Amino acid sequence: MTPSSMTPQFAAAGSAAIPLHVIETEALADWLTGQADHVRRWVDANGFTAARGQALLIPGQDGAPEMALAGYADAAQRARHRHVLAGAVQTLPAGTYAIASGLEGQALANECFGWLISSYNFSRYRDTPTPEARALIAPSGIDTARIEALAAAECLTRDLINTPSSDMGPAELEGAARALAREFDAEITVIEGDALLEQNFPMIHAVGRASPRAPRLIDLHWGDTGPKLTLVGKGVCFDTGGLDLKPAASMALMKKDMGGAATVLGLARSIMALGLPLQLRVLIPAVENAVAGNAFRPGDILTSRKGLTVEINNTDAEGRLVLADALALAAEGRPDLIVSMATLTGAARVAVGADIAPFFTDDEIAAGALAQAGPAVADPVWRLPFHEPYELKIEPGIADLDNAPGGGFGGAITAALFLRRFAGPGRYVHFDIYAWSQASTPARPKGALVQGARAVLDALPAMLSL
């Protein structure tokens, strides 16, 4: 697919740039003490307090820009907002800037990432004016290639999720995976339609068979040395709920139900662009959960690839079904780590809200690495438990497993326990993401949102001993 926005990059080194000072509110007075009289007067005359979102261009004695200031807020405000500097980017005049002071270390890297993705604009379906460029020269002390790779992955994932289902069905999702494979010389195979039954992916076939857009399993491989990492992403390109039809309000955002697939494709892009020393596999069951005479029914019992039988108590709990067959295949390859990502349950949103990506794992090394990585890269994640007593809830008696246990409690946990039955016995991490920003904030416009991918990327060295 054609990206809706240019791939964000830093300005070329050597470009003429305006020095930019990023100033915390509590540090403004001290900073002004060391400045010339005309700078102090200009700051005072313009009411600049270094609040979040404030920016100020300061002219020199000849009238040309001498420097620019960006507010970095106070500690309390910085704790509440993810990309603070991005709030000032659009307030600055168009031009090229170089951060001269105020940021260092991981905060510098995070804010540079926020600057780059603040230019994201999904304009595929309408003509919008090209925004004036506010370019940034990469400061010393950061991994420029890594930040650019993260920004490119962010834009890819957002584009895929933002695209409506009319233009992002299973075939188009396959096309995006094939384009990524071509870009990084990866191998890709796809099993489509009735071939899913022939090759023992019965639950992927059952969920997708009612749609005129054939279901498929996308399988991408890259790298031939190092530990084996398998990413599995839920690719439900639209979810009507099936015969247990969703109400209209619940169906409105179902174009984002392939957010797990989009997220693992973005994460895979980062891994390949950075050339990480591992063997990567990406599995995406891509389906549309539609309504037709041949749709799977409540009360049906399906036999999975792993041989476990599943009673269907709700056709709207379809994501775990397609993931189950893909996870079973992933486990057969005996990777060192499996990570699944899916827009799976509303219960996860109730538990932690839309801004945090909850994850489940029995692996303490992975849990510890992710707990450290999330805050470090401004990608908040939170561990939820594989609570063993809830295993009873997913065992209906008539079959091995129940895809939608009643009662309404612990829905994110029971869904994760269901998936664990297929991913074992190796190391496994499952993310239950929302993949959507409900309101626009700096660098995060309303619409598609990437969750968990940067935390996983940052944690990979510890999780896989890279």
Describe the structure.
With 466 residues, the chain is an alpha/beta fold. The protein has 2 domains: 125 residues, Leucine Aminopeptidase, subunit E, domain 1 (3-Layer(aba) Sandwich); 318 residues, Zn peptidases (Aminopeptidase), CATH 3.40.630. The protein is 34% helix and 20% strand. The strands form 4 sheets. Strands 6, 7, 8, 9, 10, 13, 14, 15 and 17 form a 9-stranded mixed sheet that branches. A 5-stranded mixed sheet has the order 2-3-1-4-5, sandwiched between helices. Strands 11-12-16 form a 3-stranded mixed sheet, with helices on one face. Helix 6 packs antiparallel against helix 11 and helix 9 packs antiparallel against helix 12. The longest helix is centred in the N-terminal third of the chain and has 19 residues. The chain starts with 17 loop residues before the first strand and ends with a helix. The model has no long low-confidence stretch (mean pLDDT 95). Keywords: Aminopeptidase, Hydrolase, Manganese, Protease. InterPro entries: Leucine_aapep/pepB (IPR011356), Macro_dom-like (IPR043472), Peptidase_M17_C (IPR000819), Peptidase_M17_N_1 (IPR048816). This is Leucyl aminopeptidase. One of its GO terms (cellular component) is cytoplasm.
Task: State the distance separating the first and last CA atoms.
Answer: 33 Å
What's the tally of helices? 16
- Backbone shape: elongated
Structural domains: how many: 2
What is the name of the CATH class of the largest domain?
A: Alpha Beta
Alpha-beta classification: alpha/beta
Question: What portion of residues is helical?
Answer: 25-40%
CATH superfamily of the largest domain: Zn peptidases
Counted beta strands: 19
Output mean pLDDT: 95
Q: Tell me the fraction of residues in β-strands, as a range.
A: 15-25%
* Radius of gyration computed on alpha carbons: 24 Å
Low-pLDDT parts are none
The CATH topology of the largest domain, please?
Aminopeptidase
CATH 2nd-level architecture of the largest domain = 3-Layer(aba) Sandwich
Sheet having the most strands: 9 strands, mixed
